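Bench notes, bay 3.
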Amino acid sequence: MRGLWWRGHDVDADTVLAFPVGGELRSLSGADFDIHTLSVSEESLGNAAVALELELPKIGARPEVFPVPAAILDPIRWRLRSFRDGLAVARPDDIAEILIALLPNWLGRESHALRPQPAPRARRRAIRMSLELMESRDLTALGPAALRAHSKVSERTLEYAFRERFGMTPAAFIKARRLAAVRSELSRASPDKAQVSDILAEFGFWHFGQFARDYRQAFGERPSDTLKRHRVAHMASE
């Protein structure tokens, strides 16, 4: 949506509204109004806050409206659309990841943190060393534990560093890099000889159904569409 005046707040497309139980609104909207909703339990909120070491205020003290950077919000929108369109099923881990991405913006990490966050220098070093390792190693055999060992930081420091810099967990970032590598390979593969399944196996993806959902969520098309588009472009250039 382009803009909305809501309960005394200027709301735009980068704003999240928080409705406590009993605080829902009955409303009518036009056809151009699009909103994604996520219903979660108080227990889930509490668990996410504990994972981030944030204090969860009482319901009446929580902000009703809060802005979220597009880098964090856009992947969440893609995920919610995939749930809505039946491309993926919402699992507890999915909901937890969404909450962990949103809570620092909702609760205000600086004012509600229970303990000081890792030093910025340590976070920058963790990101730099992690990216260096990803460039030098096979991503199919790389996980967050290897990043922590190489960067010599704690799990909490690495997690916070990646969320701060990229808006996602280290594991999600590695997966995104692998998906991007597959897309790159599909886009330059031989039009006549390449098979999607062979390329997936090369990058360690063995569950095609889940991969196809993740790929479409990330790039808005199927792996076969990427390969097909390259084949069409190749034929047109001949």
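Next record in the batch:
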Amino acid sequence: MNIVCVESLGIGRERFEALKAHYAEMGHEFTYYMDRKEDEATLAERMSGADVAVISNIKLPATVLSQCKKLKYLSVAFTGLDHIDLAYCREHGIEVQNAAGYSTTAVSELAVGMMLDLLRNIISLNEMVRQGGSRGTFLGRELRGKTVGIVGTGAIGTATARLLVAFGAKVIAWSRTERAEVKAMGVQYMPLDDLLRQSDIVSLHVPLCDETRGLIGERELQLMKPTALLVNTARGPVCDIAAVGKALVESRIAGAAFDVFEHEPPLPLDHLLLSTNRCLVTPHVAFATEESFAARADIVFGHVDEWLAR
């Protein structure tokens, strides 16, 4: 089998060389690349002879997959699969497997970190001090005692809820599937509309699918408190981003934090969420830690080994 890792995955050459030796002992060829190229021509060139390919969150449409005539298995170094043309893969017998669980801690920690910054204005206060300013009359808000609505209690939503309980927040939740371990924390499930009305902070943790696309739109934003905060570390299109931007500009919600957008950053400088200082933005980094990338490589190549052993 010809195994190709089309990008660096944030791991070093030494790890790749060990993998190359590992697969050579099994009688397979392993090719890896230490850079990340997202253009279709390069992806097609790198994957054209692969039986097995490893890729993270680079968009992989049918126009690329159709040039990979030998491809039988995709090990995706990412939790979501909405960037892969799964319909094409099903039609052509290409098995696709994600790397669930590798970034649970990383994403949940960033979500809570964003909440803390929105409440305490850490970034803007840092800039103010560097420009010679002082506290003045600034007052922050505490996370303890706030009602935080978790939208989606999969692994990441559950981990985020656990952190928030430790901070002393009151956690409520909505999810398509309710989990006993979440209820055991004292978290109450309720309809989404009720969660939006009651929450001081709404944190999104749902996958992107037809049911969740545009889940938070104009109607839902109207239900939120004017003092409420919205945090999105899930997927950009879970929100109607234009509606969120409008709500921020009109002060109908107090603030927001987004790590995900309609497409991968860089964003255009006139992007609506950049037009207001009420929104904290990061370039889709919630999953990206040294620890999570090491765990991801273990999961991804473990999946390859399991598939090869069938």
